[in-house]
Amino acid sequence: EAQLQESGGGLVQAGGSVRLSCKASGFTFRTSDMYWVRQRPGDGFEWISTISHLGYSTAYAESVKGRFTVSRDNTKNMLYLQMNNLKTEDTAMYFCAYDREYRTYTVPPDNNRGAGTQVTVSS
User: Fold this and answer.
1) Residue 4 CA, distance from chain mean position
2) Ramachandran angles phi, psi of 61, nearest 5°
3) Local structure of 96: helix, strand or coil
4) DSSP classification of residue 31
5) 39 within 8 A of 92, measured Cβ to Cβ
6) In whole angstroms, what is the distance from residue 4 CA to residue 26 CA?
7) What pLDDT sits at residue 74?
8) Phi, psi angle pair for 110, to nearest 5°
């Protein structure tokens, strides 16, 4: 059974930084494209970033481009999201997810997501 466990969220001031981590297990991480998505209070899921299975290709939503950086360590089955220059509108629950295809502006199926970690950005 695939499992994804996010960590690293918390309360941060606007302009600050947070690094999210995602521990994957139960599926072949090194052949899976990985995603970060988020859900703001009262909103649907929003695609944030995709990284290809070997990490050679990355993509970002315009809202986070230049501020967020996705990376992965296939030796540890870990996915990361470095979030810099945070804004209050970045306040959301952040989820990692996987899929067999590299896509953008797409949210993987519910079964392919973790439980999420909350990031709250204060002004």
Assistant:
1) 11
2) -65, 150
3) strand
4) G
5) yes
6) 9
7) 98
8) -55, -40
